[in-house]
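User: Reviewer 2 asked us to show a designed sequence for the structure in our supplementary figure. I'm pasting the structure tokens here. Could you produce the per-position amino acids so we can include them in the response letter?
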């Protein structure tokens, strides 16, 4: 029986082992490094959220809001793509229902990191 390791090659030329049931800590550390280097870490940090729309009637302010939201959407999409492409098939279930990179990251943390007696070590 061969023990082949699945790897992912992400944009930027990064090549890391896909997330499996047994490599959470090294995978997490490498993904954090990739996100930092790609200026995408802000999309997975606690409190990460899309800029809000305000009730302003100032067209300049409204244009700035829309530009900030568009930039956020693009960055979040890139972060989600990096996560999705580096998670193995058996672990993909943990991303179900997540709509943002932050939600994906939080769901992986909830499943993979020990929290009291019911924590799962991975």
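Assistant: Here is a per-position design you can include in the supplement:
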């Amino acid at each position: 029986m061969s023990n082949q390791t699945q790897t992912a090659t992400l944009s930027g030329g990064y090549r890391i082992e896909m997330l499996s049931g047994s490599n959470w800590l090294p995978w997490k550390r490498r993904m954090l490094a990739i996100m930092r280097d790609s200026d995408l870490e802000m999309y997975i940090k606690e409190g990460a959220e899309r800029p809000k729309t305000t009730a302003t009637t100032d067209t300049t302010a409204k244009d700035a809001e829309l530009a900030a939201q568009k930039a956020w959407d693009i960055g979040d999409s890139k972060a989600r793509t990096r996560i999705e492409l580096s998670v193995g098939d058996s672990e993909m279930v943990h991303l179900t229902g997540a709509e943002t990179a932050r939600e994906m990251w939080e769901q992986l943390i909830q499943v993979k990191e020990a929290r009291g007696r019911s924590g799962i070590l991975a």
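For the response letter, you might also mention the following. Residues 59-85 form the longest helix (27 residues). The radius of gyration is 17 Å.
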